[in-house]
Amino acid sequence: MSLLDPLFRQHLDRLDQRHTRRTLLPVRPEGAGRIRRGGRTLLNFSSNDYLGLASHPRLVERACDWAQRWGAGATASRLVCGTLELHAEVEAKLARQKGTEAALLFNSGWQANAAILPALFDRELLGGDALVFTDRLNHASLHHGCAAAGVRQIRFRHNDLDHLDSLLAQRAGEPGTRFIVTESVFSMDGDRADVPALAALAERHGAFLFLDEAHATGVLGPRGMGLAALGGGRVDLAMGTFSKALGGFGAYVAGSGALCDYLVNRCGGLIYATALPPAVLGAMDAALDLVPTLDAERARLQAMAERLRAAFHGLGIATAGSSTQIVPAITGAEEDALALSRRLEERGILGIAIRPPTVPPGTSRLRFALSTAHTDADLETLVSAVADAWSPQ
After folding, report:
1. What are the TM regions of this chain, as residue ranges (predicted)?
2. Tens digits of per-residue pLDDT, 103-116?
């Protein structure tokens, strides 16, 4: 028993009362689009494995091969002796495919956002304070990075670039370097930002544009390498992950050579973290080879999402502004989301309830994430199960 156990229990009790307590439930992969949990095989519509690459033989084989050849671990941080030749090779390949001067690998998307933003907002670098404009629905890691930097966010309404424009204009005379921090695809609503308009707005106001591409990398943009390419070279920093559509683990930054060199020297999340191991790098390398060849799979994924949205709308289910492979079903109340998730699991479907603080109060939902591992029959099974389990609020 720890000193704070009574306080921990009180907090957990309050979460139980609000229907927002989380628990860890182990699962086991069971083939294409399926997992085993609690002794049952379920159709999995909660994974971020959008292209089904997590179990692709090419990724598994290269991960095993690089581990056998290079060992289980990198043994040190990047600036000590942890930068293997493999890191440099993967970063060079990634930069070529992103069309940037350089790229830099990080251990996770959360670590990247939480560590990079404080480095960018550094007063010594900027010679003063940063003015940071952020979308209200940004991922928690972006909010955390801003908080860690000690900056006050100037938040604009979700995907409302007119509001962002007005906020920037209002502060035109104030000192400070301008930053716009947003996502290209939002993980809970499944909608996307207008990247060309964002880039034009950033250029007009002289703002640095930071774009989180975690849920776009692999599935959207030219050759599946994200929406930053639509910015005409005006996206200053694109962050993305290998842990979603690219099937493995880790994250990246793509941008100028000077940006990446600066982060090597100033970003604590890279400086003080042990480097990614060879097996992870092997899966990254294989994914970068595969993704540009998967245009047909990406088209099918978006077509499936469009069918699911149409089916949900026919049932009177709101799907927020979804226009991607992420399709939420908004229930509103936390207890309704939990109840729907339970009813679907009884019908063989894994659809996880998403509740505050992950989403704003009153917008609890089931977040359905589609994958090319799903068949057309799987999609029909989902629609039928939701139609049977849904209770209009």
Report:
1. none
2. 999 999 999 999 99
Among this protein's residues, is 129 annotated catalytic? no
Of the residues 56, 87, 98, 139, which is catalytic? 139
244 is catalytic: yes
Q: Which pTM was predicted?
A: 0.94
Q: Are strands 130-135 and 102-106 parallel, antiparallel or unpaired?
A: unpaired
138 included as an active-site residue? no
Instruction: List pLDDT tens digits, range 139-181.
Output: 999 999 999 999 999 999 999 999 999 999 999 989 999 999 9
Task: Quote the tokens at residue 162.
Answer: 């007119």
Q: Is 139 known to be catalytic?
A: yes
Whether 183 is a known active-site residue: answer yes
